[in-house]
Amino acid sequence: MSATPTDLPEFTIWPDLARRANGGSVVWATDESFAERENLIRTPEPAFDPDEFGNKGKVYDGWETRRRRHDEIGQNDAAIVRLGIPGQIKGIVVDTAWFTGNFPPQFAVYGLTCDELRTGEEIAALPDSAWTTLVPVTDAQGDHKHFFEIAPTGETAERRFTHVKLEMIPDGGIARIRVHGQPVPDPRFLGCTIDLASVENGARVTDCTNMFYSRPDHIIALGRSRNMGEGWENARRRDDSNDSVTVQLAGEGRVRWIELDTSYFVFNAPGDIKVTGLTDTGEEIELVAKTGTLPDTRHRFLISDPLEGESGPTPVVAVRVDVYPDGGISRLRVWGDLTEEGRRSIEDRW
Protein backbone atom coordinates (compact mmCIF):
# COMPACT_ATOMS: atom_id res chain seq x y z
CA MET A 1 0.00 0.00 0.00
CA SER A 2 1.16 3.54 -0.65
CA ALA A 3 2.47 5.53 2.31
CA THR A 4 0.37 8.24 3.89
CA PRO A 5 1.89 11.73 4.35
CA THR A 6 2.68 11.03 8.03
CA ASP A 7 4.62 7.90 7.04
CA LEU A 8 6.99 9.72 4.70
CA PRO A 9 10.68 9.78 5.64
CA GLU A 10 12.35 13.09 6.40
CA PHE A 11 14.23 13.29 3.09
CA THR A 12 10.97 13.75 1.15
CA ILE A 13 10.78 17.35 2.39
CA TRP A 14 13.54 18.11 -0.13
CA PRO A 15 12.40 19.06 -3.66
CA ASP A 16 11.88 16.34 -6.25
CA LEU A 17 14.67 17.17 -8.71
CA ALA A 18 13.28 14.81 -11.35
CA ARG A 19 9.62 15.73 -11.63
CA ARG A 20 8.29 17.17 -14.87
CA ALA A 21 7.12 20.39 -13.22
CA ASN A 22 10.74 21.09 -12.25
CA GLY A 23 11.97 20.52 -15.80
CA GLY A 24 12.79 16.83 -15.56
CA SER A 25 12.67 14.58 -18.62
CA VAL A 26 12.89 10.85 -19.33
CA VAL A 27 15.41 11.00 -22.15
CA TRP A 28 15.75 7.29 -22.98
CA ALA A 29 14.28 3.87 -22.28
CA THR A 30 14.91 0.39 -23.60
CA ASP A 31 11.20 -0.23 -24.12
CA GLU A 32 7.79 1.30 -23.37
CA SER A 33 5.48 -1.12 -25.15
CA PHE A 34 2.64 -0.99 -22.60
CA ALA A 35 2.99 2.38 -20.84
CA GLU A 36 4.99 5.51 -21.59
CA ARG A 37 8.28 6.24 -19.86
CA GLU A 38 7.25 9.90 -19.32
CA ASN A 39 4.76 8.76 -16.69
CA LEU A 40 7.66 8.07 -14.32
CA ILE A 41 8.10 11.75 -13.46
CA ARG A 42 4.52 12.99 -13.54
CA THR A 43 3.63 15.16 -10.54
CA PRO A 44 0.26 13.61 -9.52
CA GLU A 45 0.14 10.40 -7.55
CA PRO A 46 -0.48 7.37 -9.82
CA ALA A 47 -4.12 6.75 -10.72
CA PHE A 48 -5.88 3.55 -11.78
CA ASP A 49 -9.13 2.77 -13.58
CA PRO A 50 -9.85 -1.00 -13.57
CA ASP A 51 -12.12 -0.65 -16.61
CA GLU A 52 -9.72 1.34 -18.81
CA PHE A 53 -8.12 -0.63 -21.64
CA GLY A 54 -6.35 0.62 -24.75
CA ASN A 55 -5.06 -0.85 -27.97
CA LYS A 56 -1.98 -2.17 -26.14
CA GLY A 57 -3.88 -3.67 -23.24
CA LYS A 58 -4.53 -2.43 -19.70
CA VAL A 59 -3.80 1.27 -19.27
CA TYR A 60 -1.36 2.00 -16.42
CA ASP A 61 -0.26 5.36 -15.06
CA GLY A 62 3.41 4.42 -15.07
CA TRP A 63 6.17 2.93 -17.22
CA GLU A 64 5.64 -0.66 -18.35
CA THR A 65 7.74 -2.78 -20.73
CA ARG A 66 6.91 -5.94 -22.65
CA ARG A 67 7.68 -9.42 -21.34
CA ARG A 68 11.15 -10.50 -22.39
CA ARG A 69 11.38 -13.69 -24.46
CA HIS A 70 13.96 -15.92 -26.18
CA ASP A 71 17.23 -14.11 -26.90
CA GLU A 72 16.22 -11.17 -24.66
CA ILE A 73 16.27 -13.33 -21.53
CA GLY A 74 19.11 -12.21 -19.29
CA GLN A 75 18.82 -8.58 -20.35
CA ASN A 76 17.20 -5.81 -18.31
CA ASP A 77 15.04 -2.81 -19.09
CA ALA A 78 16.15 0.67 -18.09
CA ALA A 79 15.10 4.31 -18.32
CA ILE A 80 17.26 7.42 -17.95
CA VAL A 81 15.91 10.60 -16.33
CA ARG A 82 17.61 13.94 -16.85
CA LEU A 83 17.07 15.85 -13.64
CA GLY A 84 15.30 19.12 -14.23
CA ILE A 85 17.42 20.56 -11.44
CA PRO A 86 20.87 19.02 -10.87
CA GLY A 87 21.72 18.58 -7.23
CA GLN A 88 22.90 16.55 -4.28
CA ILE A 89 20.55 13.58 -3.85
CA LYS A 90 19.14 13.04 -0.36
CA GLY A 91 16.78 10.17 -1.09
CA ILE A 92 14.91 8.25 -3.78
CA VAL A 93 11.39 6.84 -3.97
CA VAL A 94 10.55 4.02 -6.39
CA ASP A 95 6.79 3.55 -6.54
CA THR A 96 5.14 0.45 -8.03
CA ALA A 97 1.60 1.70 -7.30
CA TRP A 98 -1.10 -0.41 -8.99
CA PHE A 99 1.45 -2.81 -10.49
CA THR A 100 0.57 -6.09 -8.76
CA GLY A 101 1.15 -8.97 -11.18
CA ASN A 102 3.49 -7.08 -13.49
CA PHE A 103 6.03 -5.29 -11.27
CA PRO A 104 9.72 -6.17 -11.75
CA PRO A 105 11.24 -8.74 -9.37
CA GLN A 106 14.14 -6.35 -8.72
CA PHE A 107 15.36 -2.86 -9.57
CA ALA A 108 18.36 -0.57 -9.07
CA VAL A 109 19.09 3.15 -9.46
CA TYR A 110 22.32 4.79 -10.64
CA GLY A 111 23.46 8.42 -10.87
CA LEU A 112 25.56 10.32 -13.40
CA THR A 113 27.12 13.79 -13.65
CA CYS A 114 27.19 15.05 -17.23
CA ASP A 115 26.86 18.76 -17.96
CA GLU A 116 27.41 18.37 -21.69
CA LEU A 117 24.39 18.48 -23.96
CA ARG A 118 23.99 14.86 -25.01
CA THR A 119 21.09 12.86 -26.40
CA GLY A 120 19.51 10.07 -24.42
CA GLU A 121 21.15 7.55 -26.72
CA GLU A 122 24.57 9.11 -26.08
CA ILE A 123 24.01 9.01 -22.33
CA ALA A 124 22.86 5.39 -22.53
CA ALA A 125 26.02 4.48 -24.45
CA LEU A 126 28.29 5.63 -21.61
CA PRO A 127 30.11 2.79 -19.83
CA ASP A 128 28.82 1.40 -16.54
CA SER A 129 31.89 2.89 -14.84
CA ALA A 130 30.47 6.38 -15.47
CA TRP A 131 27.50 5.66 -13.21
CA THR A 132 27.40 5.74 -9.41
CA THR A 133 25.20 3.28 -7.53
CA LEU A 134 22.49 5.13 -5.62
CA VAL A 135 20.17 2.19 -4.91
CA PRO A 136 21.75 -1.28 -5.16
CA VAL A 137 19.85 -4.20 -6.68
CA THR A 138 16.76 -4.49 -4.50
CA ASP A 139 13.86 -6.92 -4.34
CA ALA A 140 10.66 -5.16 -5.35
CA GLN A 141 7.16 -5.31 -3.93
CA GLY A 142 3.99 -4.71 -5.91
CA ASP A 143 1.81 -1.63 -5.29
CA HIS A 144 4.38 -0.24 -2.89
CA LYS A 145 6.51 2.86 -2.30
CA HIS A 146 10.15 1.92 -1.76
CA PHE A 147 12.11 4.59 0.14
CA PHE A 148 15.91 4.86 0.00
CA GLU A 149 17.80 7.51 1.97
CA ILE A 150 21.25 8.44 0.72
CA ALA A 151 23.87 8.43 3.48
CA PRO A 152 24.28 12.07 4.60
CA THR A 153 28.08 11.96 4.40
CA GLY A 154 30.57 10.66 1.87
CA GLU A 155 31.33 11.22 -1.78
CA THR A 156 27.88 10.20 -3.04
CA ALA A 157 26.10 12.61 -0.68
CA GLU A 158 28.32 15.54 -1.67
CA ARG A 159 28.32 14.90 -5.40
CA ARG A 160 26.11 16.87 -7.79
CA PHE A 161 24.15 14.60 -10.15
CA THR A 162 22.48 15.50 -13.45
CA HIS A 163 20.94 12.13 -14.48
CA VAL A 164 19.60 8.98 -12.87
CA LYS A 165 19.08 5.58 -14.46
CA LEU A 166 16.29 3.30 -13.24
CA GLU A 167 16.93 -0.33 -14.09
CA MET A 168 14.19 -2.98 -13.97
CA ILE A 169 15.40 -6.54 -13.55
CA PRO A 170 14.41 -7.91 -15.99
CA ASP A 171 11.17 -6.18 -17.05
CA GLY A 172 7.76 -5.06 -15.74
CA GLY A 173 6.16 -1.83 -14.58
CA ILE A 174 7.04 1.04 -12.25
CA ALA A 175 4.69 3.97 -11.66
CA ARG A 176 6.95 6.78 -10.41
CA ILE A 177 10.48 7.67 -9.44
CA ARG A 178 11.07 10.62 -7.10
CA VAL A 179 14.58 12.02 -6.66
CA HIS A 180 14.62 14.28 -3.62
CA GLY A 181 17.64 16.48 -3.05
CA GLN A 182 19.39 19.81 -2.59
CA PRO A 183 19.40 21.84 -5.82
CA VAL A 184 22.91 22.94 -6.82
CA PRO A 185 22.77 25.77 -9.38
CA ASP A 186 25.69 26.74 -11.58
CA PRO A 187 27.09 29.91 -9.92
CA ARG A 188 28.25 31.19 -13.31
CA PHE A 189 24.63 32.00 -14.10
CA LEU A 190 24.04 33.92 -10.88
CA GLY A 191 25.92 37.11 -11.64
CA CYS A 192 22.89 39.41 -11.68
CA THR A 193 19.50 39.81 -10.02
CA ILE A 194 18.00 36.34 -9.61
CA ASP A 195 14.91 34.70 -8.20
CA LEU A 196 16.17 33.94 -4.70
CA ALA A 197 13.07 31.80 -4.04
CA SER A 198 13.42 29.52 -7.08
CA VAL A 199 13.84 25.81 -6.44
CA GLU A 200 16.24 25.73 -9.39
CA ASN A 201 18.58 28.13 -7.61
CA GLY A 202 18.49 26.18 -4.36
CA ALA A 203 15.50 27.52 -2.40
CA ARG A 204 13.19 25.22 -0.46
CA VAL A 205 10.11 25.36 1.74
CA THR A 206 11.01 24.89 5.41
CA ASP A 207 7.68 25.48 7.15
CA CYS A 208 3.99 25.49 6.28
CA THR A 209 0.95 25.73 8.53
CA ASN A 210 -1.38 23.77 6.27
CA MET A 211 -1.07 21.84 3.00
CA PHE A 212 -4.42 20.11 2.94
CA TYR A 213 -4.97 20.24 -0.83
CA SER A 214 -1.49 20.56 -2.34
CA ARG A 215 2.21 20.83 -1.49
CA PRO A 216 3.59 24.25 -0.58
CA ASP A 217 6.80 23.76 -2.60
CA HIS A 218 4.69 24.11 -5.75
CA ILE A 219 4.95 27.88 -5.30
CA ILE A 220 8.71 27.88 -5.98
CA ALA A 221 8.59 25.48 -8.94
CA LEU A 222 9.77 26.37 -12.44
CA GLY A 223 7.47 28.12 -14.88
CA ARG A 224 3.84 29.14 -14.45
CA SER A 225 1.19 26.92 -12.96
CA ARG A 226 -1.20 25.34 -15.44
CA ASN A 227 -4.09 24.87 -13.04
CA MET A 228 -5.07 25.35 -9.41
CA GLY A 229 -3.61 21.98 -8.46
CA GLU A 230 -0.12 23.19 -9.33
CA GLY A 231 -0.15 25.82 -6.60
CA TRP A 232 -0.42 25.72 -2.80
CA GLU A 233 -3.91 25.49 -1.36
CA ASN A 234 -4.79 25.11 2.29
CA ALA A 235 -8.03 24.12 4.00
CA ARG A 236 -10.73 26.65 4.94
CA ARG A 237 -10.04 28.23 8.30
CA ARG A 238 -12.81 28.51 10.89
CA ASP A 239 -10.77 30.23 13.61
CA ASP A 240 -9.09 33.58 14.23
CA SER A 241 -5.61 32.55 13.00
CA ASN A 242 -4.10 32.51 9.51
CA ASP A 243 -1.93 30.31 7.30
CA SER A 244 1.65 30.88 6.21
CA VAL A 245 4.53 29.33 4.29
CA THR A 246 8.26 29.95 4.84
CA VAL A 247 10.87 29.67 2.09
CA GLN A 248 14.61 29.32 2.73
CA LEU A 249 16.22 31.37 -0.04
CA ALA A 250 18.91 30.07 -2.37
CA GLY A 251 21.39 32.17 -0.40
CA GLU A 252 21.50 35.32 1.64
CA GLY A 253 20.34 38.20 -0.55
CA ARG A 254 18.96 41.71 -0.80
CA VAL A 255 15.37 41.61 -2.04
CA ARG A 256 14.48 44.10 -4.80
CA TRP A 257 10.95 43.07 -5.73
CA ILE A 258 8.48 40.27 -5.10
CA GLU A 259 5.86 38.63 -7.28
CA LEU A 260 2.95 36.76 -5.73
CA ASP A 261 0.73 34.97 -8.23
CA THR A 262 -2.83 33.82 -7.50
CA SER A 263 -3.46 32.49 -11.02
CA TYR A 264 -6.30 29.92 -11.19
CA PHE A 265 -7.38 30.76 -7.64
CA VAL A 266 -10.62 32.50 -8.53
CA PHE A 267 -12.90 31.92 -5.54
CA ASN A 268 -10.28 30.82 -3.02
CA ALA A 269 -7.47 33.38 -3.22
CA PRO A 270 -6.33 34.94 0.09
CA GLY A 271 -8.18 38.00 1.29
CA ASP A 272 -4.90 39.64 2.31
CA ILE A 273 -1.20 38.76 2.26
CA LYS A 274 1.95 39.90 4.04
CA VAL A 275 5.59 39.08 3.26
CA THR A 276 8.27 39.14 5.96
CA GLY A 277 12.02 38.73 5.49
CA LEU A 278 14.09 36.80 8.04
CA THR A 279 17.75 37.62 8.64
CA ASP A 280 20.43 35.11 9.64
CA THR A 281 20.01 36.28 13.24
CA GLY A 282 16.24 35.74 13.21
CA GLU A 283 15.31 39.41 12.90
CA GLU A 284 12.09 40.06 10.97
CA ILE A 285 12.01 42.68 8.22
CA GLU A 286 8.67 43.76 6.75
CA LEU A 287 8.99 43.43 2.97
CA VAL A 288 5.32 43.72 1.97
CA ALA A 289 2.88 45.14 4.51
CA LYS A 290 -0.47 43.40 4.93
CA THR A 291 -2.41 44.23 1.79
CA GLY A 292 -5.44 43.01 -0.12
CA THR A 293 -5.02 40.58 -3.00
CA LEU A 294 -7.00 39.86 -6.13
CA PRO A 295 -8.00 36.44 -7.46
CA ASP A 296 -6.31 35.01 -10.55
CA THR A 297 -3.76 37.85 -10.64
CA ARG A 298 0.02 38.32 -10.67
CA HIS A 299 0.88 40.84 -7.93
CA ARG A 300 4.22 42.67 -8.02
CA PHE A 301 5.62 44.64 -5.09
CA LEU A 302 8.67 46.92 -5.15
CA ILE A 303 10.53 46.58 -1.86
CA SER A 304 11.20 49.67 0.20
CA ASP A 305 13.22 48.54 3.22
CA PRO A 306 13.05 51.03 6.13
CA LEU A 307 16.46 49.75 7.28
CA GLU A 308 18.04 50.14 3.85
CA GLY A 309 21.60 51.47 3.98
CA GLU A 310 24.18 52.55 1.45
CA SER A 311 24.76 48.98 0.31
CA GLY A 312 21.08 48.34 -0.31
CA PRO A 313 18.23 46.56 1.49
CA THR A 314 18.87 44.50 4.61
CA PRO A 315 20.07 40.99 3.63
CA VAL A 316 17.64 38.17 4.42
CA VAL A 317 18.00 34.38 4.27
CA ALA A 318 14.29 33.45 4.21
CA VAL A 319 10.86 34.91 3.58
CA ARG A 320 7.52 34.10 5.20
CA VAL A 321 4.29 34.64 3.30
CA ASP A 322 1.20 35.05 5.49
CA VAL A 323 -2.20 34.60 3.85
CA TYR A 324 -5.29 35.95 5.63
CA PRO A 325 -7.17 34.06 6.77
CA ASP A 326 -6.45 31.27 4.26
CA GLY A 327 -6.40 30.74 0.50
CA GLY A 328 -4.19 29.57 -2.33
CA ILE A 329 -1.28 31.00 -4.30
CA SER A 330 0.30 29.50 -7.39
CA ARG A 331 3.79 31.03 -7.46
CA LEU A 332 6.16 33.15 -5.37
CA ARG A 333 9.12 34.98 -6.94
CA VAL A 334 11.64 36.86 -4.80
CA TRP A 335 13.96 38.82 -7.04
CA GLY A 336 17.17 40.17 -5.57
CA ASP A 337 20.96 40.13 -5.40
CA LEU A 338 23.11 37.61 -3.59
CA THR A 339 25.39 38.96 -0.90
CA GLU A 340 29.01 37.81 -0.81
CA GLU A 341 28.04 35.33 1.92
CA GLY A 342 25.07 34.10 -0.14
CA ARG A 343 27.25 33.52 -3.20
CA ARG A 344 29.89 31.79 -1.10
CA SER A 345 27.37 29.31 0.28
CA ILE A 346 26.27 28.39 -3.24
CA GLU A 347 29.85 28.07 -4.47
CA ASP A 348 30.63 25.76 -1.56
CA ARG A 349 27.79 23.44 -2.58
CA TRP A 350 28.94 23.55 -6.19
Automatic annotation (TrEMBL):
State if Hydrolase is listed as a keyword.
yes
Task: Name the catalysed reactions.
Answer: allantoate + H2O = (S)-ureidoglycolate + urea
Q: Keywords in UniProt for this one?
A: Hydrolase, Purine metabolism
Residue ranges constituting the Allantoicase domain according to the UniProt record: 23-183, 202-337
Pathway stated in the Swiss-Prot or TrEMBL entry: Nitrogen metabolism; (S)-allantoin degradation; (S)-ureidoglycolate from allantoate (aminidohydrolase route): step 1/1
- One family from Pfam that matches here is Allantoicase
Q: What is its EC number?
A: 3.5.3.4
Q: MF terms per GO, please?
A: allantoicase activity
Biological process terms in GO annotation: allantoin catabolic process; purine nucleobase metabolic process
Write down the Gene3D superfamilies for this protein, in alphabetical order: Galactose-binding domain-like
Q: List, alphabetically, the InterPro entries matched.
A: Allantoicase, Allantoicase_dom, Galactose-bd-like_sf
Tell me the protein family, please.
Belongs to the allantoicase family.
Name listed for the protein in its UniProt record:
Probable allantoicase
Which source organism? Corynebacterium terpenotabidum Y-11
Q: What is the lineage of its organism?
A: Bacteria, Bacillati, Actinomycetota, Actinomycetes, Mycobacteriales
- Gene that encodes the chain: alc
